[in-house]
Amino acid sequence: MAGRSLIAIVTPAFGSRESVEALKREAADGGDAEVRLVAPAVEINPLHHTLGDIDHPRVEAQQRLDEALAAAKAGGVEIAKAEVGDPDPVQAAQDALLEKPADEILIFAHADDSKDWYEGGLWKHAEDSLEPPLKLVVVDGGPDSKEHVVDTETSTRGLSNADAGHEVGSAYLPGLTRGDLAGMTFGIVGTIIVVVLAAVAAAGGAATGWRAVAIGIAIAVALVNMADVVGTLLMESVRYRGGFAKFFRDISLIATPVAIVVNLLIVLLA
After folding, report:
1. CB 78 within 8 A of CB 23
2. Which of the two ends of the chain, N or C, has the fewest CB atoms closer than 10 A to its terminal CB?
3. Fold of the domain built from segment(s) 5-162
4. Following CA atoms 256, 258, 263, 268 in sequence, which dihedral angle do they give, to the nearest 10 degrees?
5. What is the C-alpha end-to-end distance of the chain, expressed in Å?
6. What string of pLDDT tens digits covers the 270 residues of the chain?
7. Element housing 7 (H / E)
């Protein structure tokens, strides 16, 4: 039987004796687990970003990861792998899961940051996006080894999938929500309209000037919506509903109506 696998999302909250003990208990629960540490590349000091130092978040995260790795090893926790991840802790966990599945995800957060998890919707987002059971370990205290674990929150195995009741049942498609299906349909129909408008604009003349612009817009919006359809199907097939999925959908919903309006104006005015 294969051993358990555990992903620990380590933030500045990890490193105190109690936080290391919490990780050690989870790793030992049900047999020694393979532990992977992931440090989200969050910008701790926004001044660096303002000054244009875009690499600094990863440098800071690597330093935190080195400190977390040292603290874990000093506490007797064997670490299989340690890496810097996406600035979004949920996305960082998703990326780690795509690399290799895990039986549990452990997230460390300061008490000051717990509002983001509970009131800001991060915890709900994690439940909706991540399949393994989750445990949020809340740490409070000063920036030293006297920090204490003051709270924990757990979820059961499986995606919360708040969209389950809104998914379109089909044996041939992944679990698309009605919103996904409506968005893809809008994109396809919108692309057809844009292409027809481009054809009308280019009729009876050389493909130059505004006619060329209309054709270029039609090609661009077709590519955008093709990426949206293909990306949505692929991402839904692995139950991914994170940042990239929303990015494709948002670009499609913005670009398609704009393209329709622009090509219509070219037909009417050019």
Report:
1. no
2. N
3. Rossmann fold (3.40.50)
4. 140
5. 70
6. 357 899 999 988 888 888 899 999 988 886 778 999 999 987 655 444 444 445 678 888 999 999 999 999 999 999 999 999 988 888 899 889 888 889 899 998 888 776 667 666 777 878 877 888 888 888 886 555 566 776 677 776 655 444 444 444 444 455 566 667 788 889 999 999 999 999 998 886 776 788 899 999 999 999 998 988 887 777 665 555 555 566 777 888 899 999 999 999 998 887
7. strand 5-9
Q: Number of helices (H) and strands (E) in the chain: give both, helices first.
A: 9, 6
What proportions of the chain, in percent to the nearest 5, are helix, strand and coil? 55, 15, 30
CA distance 91 to 233: 19
* Cα–Cα distance, 139 to 22 (Å, whole number): 11
Tokens of 61: 């995260």
Is the whole model's pTM more than 0.70, yes or no? Answer: no
What is the residue extent of each domain of the chain?
A: 5-162, 166-269
* H or E stretch at 224: helix 209-237
Q: Which pair of tokens denotes residue 75?
A: 């506490």
Angle at 15 between CA 107 and CA 136, to 5 degrees: 15
- CB of 79 within 8 A of CB of 36? yes
Residue 136: both structure tokens together: 């949020």
Contacts of 169 (CB under 8 A, 6+ apart): none
Q: What are the residues facing 82 on neighbouring strands? A: 37
Whole-angstrom distance, CA of residue 23 vs CA of residue 30? 13
d(CA 96, CA 61): 16
